[in-house]
Amino acid sequence: PIAMLKKLSKMKKLSKLLETKYKGYDVNGHRGISEGRYEGPCPSPEMKLAHIEGVNPNLKDLSMPFSEFLKLNHCEDATTVWKGPFTSFGYGYFDEIPAAYVLKYLDAFTVKQFLSTGKLWTWYDGTQSIWEGVNNHLKHPALLNSEVTNIKRENDKVFVTVNGKTEEFDKLIICTPLELFLGYGDPREEEKDLFSKIVHKEYFTMAVRPEEGNAPEISYYFFENMTNETRGHLMVFYHRWSDGVTDQPLVTFTLRNHEGMEDVPFDKAKETTLKDMELCGLKVDKIERIDDWYYFPHVGSKDYADGWYEKVEAMQGKDNTFYAGEVMAFGDMEETVEYSRDLVRRFFK
């Protein structure tokens, strides 16, 4: 189709630049990027997460907001191609998010898969089933439904209070949001300084059912609502199963915040999203579930360029503490797992 050819054309120019001028851009993690180097597992299918490293001063450009990055490289036409699977999925607007986050998630290979009809699929029992299965096969399964209320690092040991009981450990790996450690842990001044710079997105979703007999058979993007001026509006509704499953809710996706701007209140975002559904002919008859997510922890362009990641990576192992989780890679399952795997390779083998 002509529309697909236009999208592929827009993608091709930027993809070529990424493979040449920005070699190393897609390496997992962020260490070295603000200094013009790359180091980590390469996610390309050919490399199969092999460890690579090198120097490329052009990578410093990845610290600037993605909109500025596209303008610098005269690739503004690629905005629409990258915006759909990024902004509507809750990761923020291109005038605020450093290009590194956009391109480590939506590298050229991944974008091509998004544009290839029939190449997207979902887990039949949801992604939680994956981790339940993994946990069932561990020699030492994870302790679930537990609340950590205090962590103290002293005498070359780590003392963790969990479910009211204090236990002693040799090492600590923090995989939960690092800024929350400031509340229940014993943070050093450098940890306070760095972790307080982390920001996140307010991502609002609803599972809804339109009036009977009016359910669509497809998902739909609202590109005009993927701007900071229209935050709080519906960006996409998601029709999950397309193989004849008629009895299913639609899921709506809405962003409520933008760096340096006032948040859209929860109730206002809900009201606006429902009105948007009605405007597109899908008046909601029933709301089955509402979630307002803590989403996509990251740092802004200035802190990225100032070496936030290099400073955190330099602390790895200090006080027997290591740092992982979303913010160290990206806010999706694949990148987070890849980073964790590499952390083990670097420090525990």
UniProtKB/TrEMBL annotation:
Q: Which organism is it from?
A: human gut metagenome
Put simply, this protein is called Aminooxidase
SUPFAM superfamilies reported in the protein's UniProt record = FAD/NAD(P)-binding domain (SSF51905)
Quote the InterPro entries the UniProt record gives.
FAD/NAD-bd_sf (IPR036188)
Could you tell me which Gene3D superfamilies the record lists for this protein? 1.10.405.20, 3.30.70.1990
Q: What is the lineage of its organism?
A: unclassified sequences, metagenomes, organismal metagenomes
